[in-house]
Design brief:
Elements (H helix, E strand, L loop, with lengths): L1 E2 L14 E7 L4 H15 L6 E7 L4 H6 L7 E6 L2 E7 L3 H9 L3
Parallel strand pairs: 1-3, 2-3
Antiparallel strand pairs: 2-4, 4-5
Length: 103
């Protein structure tokens, strides 16, 4: 799993793979509950097909504002700079359903 720091997503502009943004916070209990499950998905996924990015909203407040994050955890799935889907909450099944939309 990759980490976004200082609101810097410039390196992501040229990615050909799907990108899952995992908006989280260190103080968020549900975020910490789902994090190991997200890490497991990340470790078992081909990075040529999907890259997962952890975005701490306290360290990347500008990015959180740009994405209009209202609660954490929140997940956004992008491909070619187009939002393909999103979900919120600590239910791993919702995240898996979101990832099933990858074609």
């Amino acid at each position: 799993m990759n980490t976004i720091e200082d609101n810097d997503i410039s390196a992501l502009q040229d990615k050909d793979c799907y990108m899952l943004f995992y908006f989280t916070a260190s103080w968020c209990g549900p975020c910490q509950k789902i994090k190991p499950m997200i890490e497991k998905i990340a470790s078992g996924t081909d990075p040529e097909k999907l890259e997962i990015y952890l975005v701490d909203i306290d360290e990347n407040d500008g990015m959180a504002s740009s994405f209009k994050i209202r609660s954490v955890p929140t997940f956004y799935l992008y491909k070619d700079n187009i939002l393909k889907g999103e979900c919120s909450g600590a239910d791993i099944n919702n995240v898996k359903d979101l990832l099933k939309t990858m074609t």
